[in-house]
Amino acid sequence: MIEIRELTVRFGGVTPIQAMDLTLPGGACGLIGPNGAGKTTFFNVLSGFVTPATGRVLAFGDDLLALPGHRRARWGLRRTFQTEQAIEQLSVYDNVAMVHEHTGGHRRDRHRDVLTALDFVGLSVSPTAPVGALGAGERRLVELARAVVGRPRVVLLDEPAAGLPDEETGRIGAVIRRIPAELDAMTVLVDHDMSLVSACCDVTAVLDFGRLIAAGPTQEVLRDEHVVRAYLGTEEVA
Ligand SMILES: Nc1ncnc2c1ncn2[C@@H]1O[C@H](COP(=O)(O)OP(=O)(O)OP(=O)(O)O)[C@@H](O)[C@H]1O
User: Fold this and answer.
1) Cα torsion at 195, 199, 200, 202 (round to 10°)?
2) pLDDT tens per residue, range 167-187
3) What InterPro entries does this protein's entry cite (predicted)?
């Protein structure tokens, strides 16, 4: 569970998050909103790239903002970024092992944990293959493997299937859907693809230019008239 209280972020005159109060109950959660609504900024606050002006974030009761960024990773906070982070010249294995090391995984467990993560995401290429030689869908699976290796507790996913065709997006969604039950970690998915959000998230919150405008069971939220208006004018969201 993540509890956000009175969270405000300011960049000069821009306030991308304003007095946000939100409880993400655990399991599979979604966060949606128009471009510039503050979703990535929210992830940046949780992962330590941005310091908020005010507010508290409790993750499973722990005061996340009191921990420096590297301690949050060791605590079990993981994230993917809109742009791929894997290093093209390094192998699939080394790219995942690097995160295992950074997040405090024991060296003696590394081989097993890296192969387990690759198996979990269903990556069928050789672990020794350089990431630069992989196709777009496989590279996104490497990003997911990096986010789940070891012992994640909260996995933040920022448009994890961006740019992929529907079939490969479905494959990514199927992996994300398994994370809460099989890895005992909660997921928070930020995405503009409402079919992916519907498929992966039990509950969804909606940000609109710094303000939380809806939160609840995903199917109800996607039908909410305020959400439909904020997101797409008068059209249905999904
Ligand atoms: N480091 C920064 N300095 C100044 N302004 C910033 C910074 N980071 C984000 N912003 C601004 O904050 C607002 C929210 O941006 P953010 O990237 O969080 O939105 P988003 O909801 O993730 O959008 P998208 O769906 O396009 O990824 C935008 O107006 C953006 O220009």
Assistant:
1) 110
2) 999 999 999 999 999 999 999
3) AAA+_ATPase, ABC_AA/LPS_Transport, ABC_transporter-like_ATP-bd, BCA_ABC_TP_C, P-loop_NTPase
